[in-house]
Automatic annotation (TrEMBL):
Name listed for the protein in its UniProt record: Iron-enterobactin transporter ATP-binding protein
Species per Swiss-Prot/TrEMBL record: Ancylobacter defluvii
Membrane topology: Peripheral membrane protein
Annotated SUPFAM superfamilies: P-loop containing nucleoside triphosphate hydrolases
Pfam families: ABC_tran (PF00005)
ABC transporter domain ranges (all copies): 10-246
Amino acid sequence: MIERAPESRLEARSISIGYSGRDIIRNLSFSVPTGQFTALLGPNGSGKSTLLRALAGLITPASGAVLIDGLPMASMSRGQIARRLSLMPQSPRAPEDITVRDLVAQGRYPHRGLFTRWSLADDAACRRALELTETLELADTPLCNLSGGQRQRAWTAMTLAQSSDILLLDEPTTYLDISHQLNVMALLKRLVHEQGTTVVAVLHDVTQAARFADQMLLLKDGQLVASGPPVQVMRADLIAAVFAVEATIIEDPVDHTPVCLARR
């Protein structure tokens, strides 16, 4: 197992983000634990996706700053950011006739110069990404011929092919059946514990997040309500405060992780 570094490489410092005169994120600060799996959770409209895009450098906060490796993202080029982290957005787009193989190959662009030829390392990274996401047999299939779940896995493969140390994923299990949901979550967990990858993922299933994530962040109305290990965050009072539901928290008899039983 990779020994985890204690410091944080990715940090939000007092960031505020708004659209059309309305605050989405308000004066939010937190550090992403290096070499851990962090789950972002909260009700619709709580600011999860906006925060993830800010962490990826796609949104510049109105105030405050996002730092990576101690440097403000606003001062860095897209290439510099892309070599450090990769993002899988919520609704990615690509030409419908592009094959899975060519889509995944796009993940290698941050590692190649203008006149750099395709290398064996590029081939190896793409093949590994296809294998990890169980999409190797779909490599020559156009996106237009894939199911929603297959597309989701293809985009995950492209994100992995980027070979960055920090992965940001917006609802990576959307459109996936339960089997592939578990495979993707187990894959992310394995990348963290075997390779020291830092993962931040927006998720909706609090029980699934508690099972696989090392840290959970609960957002509501653009503010951080709670953060910490699942055993600390998965509390009935916090679930009620964030999601406005009555819940009972029990322990999974196999994994010994918290399970949320929503009542009403």
